[in-house]
C-alpha cells in the first residue's frame, strides 16, 4: 500500500522490493483479504511519513489507530501522499484508523475505541495502529499524549499482542529522522513515550539496546533511545515521575475548597443527597475528603438548624464508602486543632464540637478513640499567634533571598535576630517553610534547601517536627504538587545522608503516621527504600544535580580528588587548620567517611601517624562523627585484599588501628573485623 491508500499488484511487489533493496516481503498479507500496493507514478518523490504528530506528554489511555498512511513496510516508505477516495484501489480502512484516533481524542472512550479497532479485523497490522496513535499524539497536547499512553495499556495483550506493540515502537524509532521535520522536539517526546511504555510494562527494557543495534549511530532514533534510557529511566523514582509527566488539569487547593463549600451550601438548601454525592465523586480527590468533613462540621456549628441534615449526609457517605474512615478521622482532628480559633466567632464551639463527636460516634461512623484529645479549656500556645505569623512571613523573605544569593551566613544572621531564644517551635516552622518553598521551585532551589538544612545544625528533634508538619499538610500540597510524596521522601532521605537527621530519627518520623497507605507512611517507606539502595549516599546527593556545600554541582569524583589533594598536602607538612578548613568548605558531612578512608590508607601505606593525628583533631572538634568514622573504617576493611598486595602487613596494621580507635571512642565496641562484606565491587582502595 502506498500513501494514497492504494495497493500494488503481486506482480509489481518484487519490482518495488528490489528497487528499495529490502529483503523479505514488504508487508505481510492479511488472512482476511489480499493486499497489494499501487506503485507511484514516474518521478514521484519517495519520502518517509512526515505527517504531524501529537506531542508525547501523556499517559496511555485510549486506543489509538493509525491515520492516513499505509500498512506494512511500504507504509514507512511511501506515506507522503494523502488518501484519495477516487483511487480505484482505495482502501478506507486506513482512513477509519485516523477517524478512530480522532474520535478517541474527542470522546476519551476506551471501550468504544477498542470495539472499533476490533471491527477492523486486521490484527497483523496493529503495529501500524500503535505507530499512528503515538505519532498523532506527539503533535498534540499533554492530554492527548496521556490518553494515548492509557489506551495502549488498555489494549495491550487483549487486543494488540506484544509483538505488534514492539514493532509499532520500532517503526516509530526508525522514523524519528522524519518525524523531527514536523515535530522539533521529537527526540524528547518519543523518548518519553518509550520510557512510559517500559514503565507500563507494554515494552520490555531490552527494547532499547536491541533497537539501538539496528540503527545508524548518527540517527535521531539512537538519540531517542539514549534519552529514554539516561534521561528518564535512569532517574531516581523514574516510574512515578514518568507516569505523572502528562497528567494535566491540576486543581488548586482553593478551587477544590470552593467547590466543596458550594456543594455543601446547595445540599443544605435542597437536601438532595444524590446530587451532593455526585459532586463529591466529580471532585476526584479522595485524599482531600477530610476537607468535606471539616467544612460540613463548621457549617453545622454555624447553622444549627442544618446540623442533622449535614450529619446525615456524612453518615451515609461513610456507610457507602464514599468517604473512608481515615479521612473522617482526619477531618475531625483538623476541627479539634482549630476549635480555639473558631471559639472567637462561635462562643460554644468546643461544646458543640464535643456534641458532634458524640453523635457521630453513637451513629457508628466515627471512632472517637482514634481522635486527638479535646479539652474544654483553651490550650495555652507556646507562642503568641501574631508573633508566629510574623515569623512565618519573615522566614519566607529570608528563604527567598537565600535562593537568590546563596548566602548561608546571611541566613544564620537573620535567624539569630528573629529567633533569639532558639525556640524549637520556630526552628521547625523554618524547616517546614524552607522545604515547602523549595518544592515549588526547580532542582537548584531544592539542592540549596538541602545544603542549608545540613548547615544550620538545628537540633534533630526540631528537624523531625518540621518534617512531621510537612507530611501532615501533604494532603493539601498534593493538589498543587502531584509528586509531593516523592519530593518529601527525597528531602527526608537527603537529611539522613547529610546527617541533619540520624537513621533513628527517620523511624521517629515514620512512627507518627499509621498505615502504609497514608501519605506519611508512603513518604517513610519511600525514604527507607532510597537509603537502602546501593551507593545510596552518592545517588541521593546527585538527585537534584548538586553536590552540597557552597558550590552546588560538584561531582563525587571531583570531591574525592579534592580530599586526596588536601590530605596529601597536609601529610607532606601542611597546616592542620588549612586542611580542616578545606574539609569543612566541602559542605558534605555525609561524605566524610571518604576522608577517614583515604587518611587511614595513607597511614597504613606510609606508616606515618601524622594523618592519624589529623583524624583525632577532626573527631575531637566534631567535624567527623562516629558514624562517618565507622563507615570509613568499614570501607578500608573492604579493600584490604587489594591493599595487602602492596603492604603485606596491611591486615595487622588495620586491626591495631581498629583497637586503638575503639579505645579512644572513635568506633563503637561492637565494631570488629569481618563485619563488612567484601567490597571490591565498590572500587577497592582507589
From TrEMBL:
Q: Which Pfam families match?
A: MA3
Supply one GO BP term: regulation of translation
Q: Which domain of life is it from?
A: Eukaryota
Task: List locations, semicolon-separated.
Answer: Cytoplasm
Q: What GO terms fall under cellular component here?
A: cytoplasm
The record, for InterPro entries, names: ARM-type_fold, Initiation_fac_eIF4g_MI, PDCD4
Q: Which residues form the MI domain?
A: 92-213, 255-376, 390-511, 558-677
Give yes or no: UniProt keyword Cell wall biogenesis/degradation.
Answer: no
Report the sequence similarity comment from the record: Belongs to the PDCD4 family.
Any idea what this protein is called?
MI domain-containing protein
The organism is: Hibiscus syriacus (Rose of Sharon)
Amino acid at each position: 500500500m502506498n500513501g494514497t491508500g492504494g495497493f500494488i499488484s503481486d506482480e509489481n511487489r518484487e519490482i518495488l522490493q528490489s528497487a528499495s533493496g529490502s529483503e523479505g516481503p514488504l508487508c505481510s498479507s492479511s488472512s482476511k483479504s489480499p493486499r497489494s500496493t499501487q506503485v507511484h507514478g514516474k518521478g514521484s518523490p519517495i519520502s518517509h511519513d512526515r505527517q504531524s504528530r501529537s506531542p508525547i506528554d501523556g499517559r496511555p489511555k485510549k486506543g489509538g489507530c493509525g491515520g492516513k498512511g499505509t500498512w506494512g513496510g511500504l507504509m514507512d516508505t511511501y506515506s507522503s501522499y494523502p488518501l484519495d477516495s477516487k483511487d480505484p484501489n482505495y482502501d478506507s480502512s486506513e482512513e477509519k484508523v485516523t477517524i478512530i484516533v480522532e474520535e478517541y481524542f474527542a470522546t476519551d472512550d476506551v471501550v468504544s475505541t477498542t470495539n472499533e479497532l476490533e471491527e477492523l479485523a486486521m490484527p497483523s497490522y496493529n503495529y501500524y495502529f500503535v505507530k499512528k496513535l503515538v505519532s498523532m499524539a506527539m503533535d498534540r497536547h499533554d492530554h492527548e499524549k496521556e490518553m494515548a499512553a492509557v489506551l495502549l495499556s488498555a489494549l495491550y495483550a487483549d487486543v494488540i499482542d506484544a509483538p505488534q506493540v514492539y514493532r509499532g515502537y520500532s517503526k516509530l524509532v526508525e522514523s524519528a529522522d522524519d518525524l523531527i521535520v514536523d515535530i522539533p522536539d521529537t527526540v524528547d517526546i518519543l523518548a518519553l513515550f518509550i520510557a512510559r511504555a517500559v514503565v507500563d510494562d507494554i515494552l520490555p527494557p531490552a527494547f532499547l539496546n536491541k533497537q539501538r543495534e539496528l540503527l545508524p549511530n548518527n540517527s535521531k532514533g539512537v538519540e531517542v533511545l539514549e534519552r529514554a534510557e539516561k534521561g528518564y529511566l535512569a532517574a531516581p523514582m523514574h516510574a512515578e515521575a514518568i507516569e505523572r509527566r502528562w497528567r494535566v488539569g491540576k486543581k488548586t487547593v482553593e478551587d477544590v475548597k470552593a467547590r466543596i463549600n458550594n456543594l455543601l451550601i446547595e445540599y443544605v438548601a435542597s437536601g438532595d443527597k444524590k446530587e451532593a454525592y455526585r459532586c463529591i465523586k466529580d471532585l476526584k480527590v479522595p485524599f482531600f475528603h477530610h476537607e468535606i468533613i471539616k467544612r460540613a462540621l463548621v457549617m453545622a456549628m454555624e447553622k444549627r438548624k442544618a446540623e442533622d441534615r449535614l450529619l446525615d449526609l456524612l453518615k451515609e457517605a461513610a456507610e457507602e464508602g464514599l468517604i473512608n474512615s481515615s479521612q473522617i478521622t482526619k477531618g475531625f482532628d483538623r476541627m479539634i486543632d482549630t476549635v480555639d480559633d473558631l471559639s472567637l466567632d462561635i462562643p460554644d464551639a468546643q461544646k458543640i464540637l464535643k456534641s458532634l463527636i458524640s453523635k457521630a460516634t453513637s451513629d457508628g461512623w466515627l471512632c472517637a478513640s482514634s481522635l486527638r484529645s479535646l479539652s474544654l479549656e483553651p490550650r495555652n500556645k507556646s507562642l503568641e499567634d501574631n508573633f508566629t505569623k510574623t515569623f512565618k512571613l519573615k522566614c519566607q523573605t529570608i528563604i527567598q533571598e537565600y535562593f537568590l544569593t546563596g548566602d548561608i551566613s546571611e541566613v544564620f544572621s537573620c535567624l539569630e535576630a528573629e529567633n533569639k531564644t532558639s525556640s524549637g517551635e520556630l526552628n521547625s516552622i523554618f524547616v517546614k517553610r524552607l522545604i515547602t518553598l523549595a518544592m515549588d521551585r526547580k532542582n537548584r532551589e531544592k539542592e540549596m534547601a538541602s545544603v542549608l538544612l545540613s548547615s544550620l545544625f538545628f537540633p534533630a528533634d526540631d528537624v523531625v517536627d518540621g518534617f512531621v508538619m510537612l507530611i501532615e499538610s501533604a494532603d493539601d500540597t498534593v493538589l498543587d504538587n502531584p509528586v509531593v510524596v516523592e519530593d518529601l521522601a527525597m528531602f527526608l532521605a537527603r537529611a539522613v545522608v547529610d546527617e541533619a537527621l540520624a537513621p533513628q530519627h527517620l523511624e521517629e518520623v515514620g512512627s507518627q503516621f499509621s498505615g502504609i497507605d497514608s501519605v506519611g507512611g508512603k513518604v517513610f517507606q519511600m525514604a527507607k527504600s532510597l537509603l537502602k539502595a546501593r551507593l545510596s549516599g552518592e545517588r541521593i546527593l546527585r538527585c537534584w544535580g548538586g553536590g552540597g556545600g557552597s558550590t552546588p554541582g560538584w561531582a563525587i569524583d571531583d570531591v574525592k580528588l579534592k580530599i586526596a589533594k588536601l590530605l596529601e598536602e597536609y601529610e607532606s607538612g601542611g597546616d592542620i587548620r588549612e586542611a580542616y578548613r578545606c574539609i569543612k568548605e566541602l559542605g558534605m558531612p555525609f561524605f566524610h567517611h571518604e576522608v577517614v578512608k583515604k587518611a587511614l590508607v595513607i597511614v597504613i601505606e606510609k606508616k606515618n601517624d601524622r594523618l592519624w593525628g589529623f583524624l583525632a583533631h577532626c573527631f575531637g572538634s566534631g567535624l567527623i562523627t562516629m558514624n562517618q568514622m565507622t563507615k570509613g573504617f568499614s570501607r578500608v576493611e573492604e579493600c584490604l585484599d587489594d591493599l595487602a598486595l602492596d603492604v603485606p602487613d596491611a591486615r595487622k596494621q588495620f586491626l591495631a588501628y581498629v583497637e586503638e580507635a575503639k579505645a579512644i571512642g572513635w568506633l563503637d565496641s561492637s565494631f570488629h573485623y569481618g563485619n563488612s562484606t567484601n567490597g571490591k565491587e565498590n572500587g577497592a582502595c582507589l
